[in-house]
Amino acid sequence: MRKQMEMIGEEEMYNLMKRERERVKLEVDIVVVPLGMGFLLAYHVWLLYTIRRHPRRTVIGLNAESRRIWAFCLMADPLKNGVLAIQTLRNNIMASTLLATIAITLSSLISVYVSNESSSSTRLMNKGSVMPSIKFFAILICFLVAFLCNMQSIRYYAHTSFLVSVPSFRGRKDAIEYVATNLNRGGFFWSLGLRAFYLSFPLFVWVFGPIPMFVCCCVMVFILYFLDITNYFTRDLYDHSVNDVEDLESAVFPA
Asked: Which of 23, 31, 42, 248 is 20 to 30 Å apart from 83, CA to CA?
């Protein structure tokens, strides 16, 4: 009888320590995970502001202006440059298709894994398995967003491939602006799809704990900063190219 009482006491003590450990871990998750995600969100808010106010300081803004110039240069003579334009857009469609395929494949694998884990935890009545499901569900959302963004990118690139080779658009600045707008929308959705892939890395690391996830968010912000911001050499080289293109544009579209 005494041994049974001791075993019951040890079991209650073990359960109490386990619940306390889970409570502390949950509190760390509640504090550290939103802090890391807020760090990433603050960086992207600053990046969006910079793209709108100072586009040439960012790679996304500079690429948008470059795509617009590319559209004006090729559509100055659609019959001559049509093949080059279609091949370039086809390469972008293939890249978006690859990323969309990867995203939907990973989403399917994660869905199968989470459904199997959920059914197992239901049979075992294990309440501690809720948090892993939330983590994998967050990763699933990232890949679904990446899939949808890349599909929209394919849509705009495919539409642009028809517009860029229309002979009647030659010499019409409003029509070429419309083509450049659709081309840039495809590029922006491509960038959003990549951001969703980038965001999945901290969420993957979250599986190993909130502290590694926070460290991954901080490292990701520094890496993205160097990938998103242009340097003086790039901006100077772009300015020289733009001046030449503006001379060509003024010759094609006289005021």
From this structure: 248
Read off the pLDDT of residues 138-191 as tens digits, 9 standing for 90 and up. 999 999 999 999 999 999 999 999 888 887 777 788 888 899 999 999 999 999
CA 80 to chain centre: 35
Is-above-0.70 flag for pTM?
yes
Structure tokens at 109: 């694998």
> Which residues on adjacent β-strands are paired with residue 229?
58
In the block, residue with structure tokens 């998750």: 29
Report how far residue 38's alpha carbon sits from residue 218's, in angstroms, rounded to the nearest whole number: 10
Beta bridge partners of 58: 229
Tell me if 223 sits within 8 A of 182, measured CB to CB.
no
Written as one string, the DSSP assignment of the chain is -HHHHHHHHHHHHHHHHHHHHHHHHHHHHHHHHHHHHHHHHHHHHHHHHHHHH-GGGBHHHHHHHHHHHHHHHHTTSHHHHHHHHHHHHHHHHHHHHHHHHHHHHHHHHHHHHHHHHHHHHHHHT-GGGHHHHHHHHHHHHHHHHHHHHHHHHHHHHHHHHHHTT-GGGTT-HHHHHHHHHHHHHHHHHHHHHHHHHHHHHHHHHHTT-HHHHHHHHHHHHHHHHHHHB--HHHHHHHHHHHHHHHHHHHHHS--
